[in-house]
Amino acid sequence: MSQRLWDLPIHLYILTVKIFLFDKFRSLTSKCQKQKMQKRF
Fold it and tell me: Using one digit for the tens of pLDDT, what is the confidence trace for 3-28?
């Protein structure tokens, strides 16, 4: 029973980290795209 209680928080933590990293990566790529667009003009 105690193992099951610990399972959920770990999964939630991993999910939060994944979402956070994905969001950071997306913002970085969008910044790069914007800079490329600015360089073209």
Answer: 676 677 888 999 999 999 999 999 99
Residue with the bigger pLDDT between 1 and 4: it is: 4
**Amino acid residing at 4:** R
- The torsion defined by the Cα of 23, 24, 25 and 27, in degrees rounded to 10, comes to 90
Q: Where are the domains of the chain?
A: 1-41
Output DSSP code: residue 41. -
Using CA atoms, how far residue 22 sits from 26, 27, 28, 31, in Å, is 6, 9, 10, 14
Kindly report the pTM of this predicted structure: 0.56
What residue type is 20 in one-letter code? F
